[in-house]
Amino acid sequence: MLEINLVPPGAQGAGGLEVLAEVLAGRTRRLECTQYGAFTSCSLVVGDFDPPLRFSLPIRTEFRAPPETKMATTSIRFTRTQVTAQVAGTPKVSPQIAWSDTGLPKLAQHMFSLMLRNLASDGFLFVDPNHPDPNDPQSFSLPGCIIAAPTSALNTPGIYQDYVYNWTRDAAITAIEIAAAKMPTAPGSGVQPLIDYVNFAQICQNNATPSLALASYTIRGLSREWTEQTDGPALQTLAILMAYDQLDPATQTVANAVINNNLNYLLGTYQGQTFNLWEEHKGFSFFARSVQLRCFQAIEANSVGIPVPPGTDAAITWLQTALQQHWNGALYVSIMPAPPGYDANTDIISACLYGAVPCTDTKLLATAAQVRDQWENPNSPDHYPINVTDKNNRGIGPLLGRYPGDVYDGDVNDPSAGDHPWALCTCNLAELYYTLANQIQNSQAVPLDQFSTMFFSQIGVTQDTPVAEVVSQLQNAGDAMLAAVIYHSDHLELSEQFDGVTGYEKSVRNLTWSYAAFLSAVRARTGQTVQG
Fold this sequence. Notes:
five-stranded mixed sheet, three-stranded antiparallel sheet, 16 helices
């Protein structure tokens, strides 16, 4: 039995019960108390475990009775809603973090180090939680494997997900940030993490079943049973192109083979359906089409000698037309046929950052405005209460989620609808603000029309706002969103999600993509890269 000494609220160290309830937020629990004289002996029974976990809570009370008197046992039941309501207004105690734009490069440097913890090398290995025996040939990772997160149900109580796998998409987005860091190398050599990444990508390709679109692999590069997503090969190709000049000659040869395999596959499948970014629905994906288009455009423009395969021009033209078919008159639909209640979806914003949709596309901005409004506006049924608290008390935010009605929160046994913004989604909109600010600064033209009016009005911009102030307002909007991510982080460690009521982190811890999204946003804001 774990002994936790607490005192009741109002005494020295008050708030012990609330703190414990906060730590165990989201879990149905029962508090059984039996009073003995001046003390109350309590057992906190935590569900979802077999046998149930019991925490002993000796609490001093003001009751006076003979020691031999045993009072009746009482039972109190706490629920997620009650607990989060109690702690929503509790100020967080954490180190002071300077999150202004002048401090962002330093914070990004730290985030880069945290991200690299999820990259395997020949001396830094991961153990597959499903194969913990060191004698099992599947136990240890291969160099270049980039896990989505170090979290699994076997090592993180309360989380019923296993992220100790290499997702093609997540790994590519991470490799882009490693390539951007321009790590120092010895003359004639390359950047070892990128060399490992390319070689591991080829291992995955060689094992891909049923096709190169398989989205997820084991830490040994073996296929697992998972969805097929055609954005993966496109993003992987883009990452390798960005890293190409940091590879040694032998690895460049491997890179050529990986890219050629990807292109041959994509040219045969780009017109078809695929699972979407969130791996939930199959159809014609706006995100997949956008990153495929960017991939083909990058191949046409490449200067490293990658041959442009026949059919690339036709694919570019077809995808440009297909993307416009997602406009429904009010926003871009994320996948067709459209599932009810699935839009406005933040994968449209991601399609701009990782794909070919320009940041000045006013229909994109119209969609982004609705994405923000549904989680910021207190009158929206999907709004996050933490955004109201953050705006009124701290002047930061808002935090964004994936799509309205999202029920995935990392705990499949206790799903909670509508209260879990994501760090990467929030960073993605911040990056869109920065990218658009940069474009407006360079062109001195503001893409404000009947579609983008709401987008600009959310940040206080009108037709009469001077260009310099538009740029400043966009930067301030992005800063406020990154500030919220930093404030609600755990000493800069980023989980997959935050609680939409309390702001505390939840779901899978140390999500690689969360760090990569933050780094990409900071690069767009400052024009600086981390020191690799």
